[in-house]
Amino acid sequence: MSDEHFDVVIIGAGVNGAGIARDCALRGLKTLLLEKGDIASATSSASTKLIHGGLRYLEYYDFKLVRESLLERQRLLNIAPHIIWPLEFRLPHAPDIRPFWMIRAGLYLYDLLSFSPRLKNTVGYSCVKKDPHSDLKDTSRKIISYRDCWVDDARLVILNAKDAQRNGAVIMPHCKCVGISHQNDMWHVNVNIRGFQNVFQARTVINAAGPWVYKLLEDQGLVSDKTPRVRLVQGSHIIVPRYLAGEHAWILQQPDKRIVFAIPYERDFTLIGTTERDIQGDPSNASITEEEIDYLINAVNRSFSQQISRSDIRHTYAGVRPLFDDNATESRQVTRDYRLHETHRAKNMMVSVFGGKLTTYRTLAKDVVDRICHHVSLEKPCVTDRIALPGGEIDGGDIESYIHKLQKDFPQVEEKHMRRLWQCYGTAARDILSQPRGRHFGADLYESEVLYLINHEWAQAAEDILYRRTKCGLHMTQSERDQLGVYLAERKNNV
Ligand SMILES: Cc1cc2nc3c(=O)[nH]c(=O)nc-3n(C[C@H](O)[C@H](O)[C@H](O)COP(=O)(O)OP(=O)(O)OC[C@H]3O[C@@H](n4cnc5c(N)ncnc54)[C@H](O)[C@@H]3O)c2cc1C
Description:
The chain is of the alpha+beta class. The protein is 31% helix and 26% strand. The chain has helices at residues 15-26, 63-79, 100-114, 153-166, 213-219, 290-301, 361-375, 399-409, 415-425, 429-433, 447-456, 462-469, 478-494; strands at 5-11, 31-34, 50-51, 84-92, 126-129, 143-151, 170-172, 175-183, 186-193, 196-207, 230-241, 249-253, 259-265, 269-273, 277-278, 315-324, 338-345, 348-355, 440-442, 445-446.
């Protein structure tokens, strides 16, 4: 492939790079997506996993971002109903942190901004109640309830990459871009593929390297005084066995004015996050700190009667937000909106992506690809809001009927297992269920699913399967996880 020419080479397969690849491919552009590690191995698998308007951004008057995110919430729910679903949030009123009228006004505005004549049945609403049976220490507190959406973040990335590939894009995980130069009216992108250097030529390059966006430009001498700065803000989560009642999430206001979520996670767990911690240096080394663990434990213990401690923690993860640096004093105040930066050489353009959110990845991608189309005088409209992501194509959108049908067709599969497969793969669950199950690795992970992930979703290592494409690792013992690693290594040696 070395000398192949592409219309667009994209560096970085996080949610933004994969979303851009999908949009490019759907508009007929010859596209290559490069990723130095596994797909979604950086920030895009380490988020709080919310598709939300961002209630707290209202406090910074970011109405445009909230409105855009709320509209996007409905669009994404339509194109990926298997990996995105509505979730109720309960916010206990904390009079010492924000007055009640402010929260009510914020939620009223939130609902108002989510209104669109084109989009019926938006998921947002608000109400006030007191719940004497809630998990709160102070059950006399007013609770405000509203709805947003939850997403399997890593799978959102994988499905965008899959759809890009289905529409002709070439997807290359474990291929690091190590150099970019401009010669003879083309960008030359140097790529390290298993220790060998290859060069791909492209008319347009997209730098969607997330936390490495600025470093990539700097290393290639492509920084100017107009180049935006990236602010790297680490955020961490802890996962504990489920200890809060109900299917709703909690949004907890903290004395430092931040908020922390406690979200029902993977049926048996509670996900608690997140933190904000400015970091310098290499984002690859992000990992949760002792202070962050204390902060998160205190954040929930302050509100709930049942107390948790370090010994309850089953898993942690940390990610780095590549925020567009708007010179805000505190990291929580930095905008979550994105900026696109263009670099031009002769007739060729490079676009670098600064900032963004999972929620707005599709509009960001549209913005980037509109620019590419304009630059090369291609008149092709964006269709990514109309075409379902792989597995999300359900006639009439009736999910429960579809799951019922699956259960009838595969009666030997337990309901819990069936629902998990549905929430990962949607209609593609059938491809896994119709194969012999094969070896059992632990929890409800079988060889048929592992082979599907290797053959159709670029999985290579145990981690890719256990914590990104599925979350089965949380439900398995260390020895079971190790066994999967041994199986994959043996398989690789035999291939
Ligand atoms: C703690 C936390 C919580 C969050 N919660 C939410 C939330 O609830 N809702 C929401 O909407 N957003 C949330 N976000 C924001 C969202 O996760 C990010 O905006 C988004 O994931 C960034 O995606 P990206 O594609 O820009 O970056 P990344 O996902 O980091 O992708 C960049 C990719 O580029 C690759 N790369 C870098 N250099 C090279 C190279 N030289 N060659 C090849 N590949 C390269 C990297 O390996 C990486 O995979 C959260 C973020 C964090 C950190």
